[in-house]
Design brief:
6-stranded parallel β-sheet, binds magnesium ion
Length: about 190
């Protein structure tokens, strides 16, 4: 199971994300527990535009990520995530070293394929869960089942990428209001 971070695991606060005020998306813990129980690998795939824009350093972002993951692990009493992939590259980055139209940046599927290789995943039996059409496109291009979690960015335009795609042509396989609604979908699959 692939999870986007902002808007999927936690409320998307962008640059204002305060590690002491992290709010988890409804149903997250139920979903993670259910996925673990069913032996799914749990992998985070997140674009970190704020690094490319120079608003946070790679290190700051990594520390914040670790805080989020640690809170989740503590809450569930287990080590939840198998891997976190983040992409700091952006075609219009302010930081030169990150100015790159990367195959690893969603809507491109690079992070998912990287995980597939690492964990030998069956992508047809994998889920990509996200709140933006970029997540859905990335999941779709990787051949995954795609699930959109309800949120304020559901209808936002496809983020900057050289990928030429008409977003109207790509729709999620499922739309859910709460993350726990994914559990029955999971059960149908296995
Ligand atoms: Mg998101």
């Amino acid at each position: 199971m692939f999870l986007d971070r902002d808007g999927t695991i936690i409320i998307d606060k962008g640059i204002n994300l305060n590690p002491n005020k992290i709010i988890f998306i409804e149903g997250l813990f139920q979903l993670l527990k259910a996925a673990k129980k069913r032996s799914f690998k749990i992998i985070v795939v997140t674009n970190q535009t704020i690094v490319s824009k120079g608003l946070k350093t790679y290190r700051e972002m990594k520390i914040l990520n670790d805080i989020i993951l640690k809170k989740i692990n503590t809450k569930l009493g287990i080590s939840v995530f198998d891997r976190v992939y983040f992409c700091p590259f952006h075609p219009n980055a302010n930081i030169n070293r990150y100015k790159f139209d990367s195959y690893f940046r969603k809507p491109q599927p690079g992070m998912l394929f990287k995980a597939q290789k690492k964990f030998n995943l069956d992508l047809k039996k994998s889920f990509m869960v996200g709140d933006r059409i970029s997540d859905i496109v990335a999941g779709n291009l990787a051949g995954c089942i795609t699930i959109m979690i309800k949120g304020k960015y559901n209808k936002s335009k496809l983020i900057e990428s050289s990928l030429k795609i008409n977003k109207e042509t790509i729709q999620p396989n499922y739309r859910v209001n709460k993350l726990e609604d994914i559990i029955p979908i999971m059960d149908d699959l296995i």
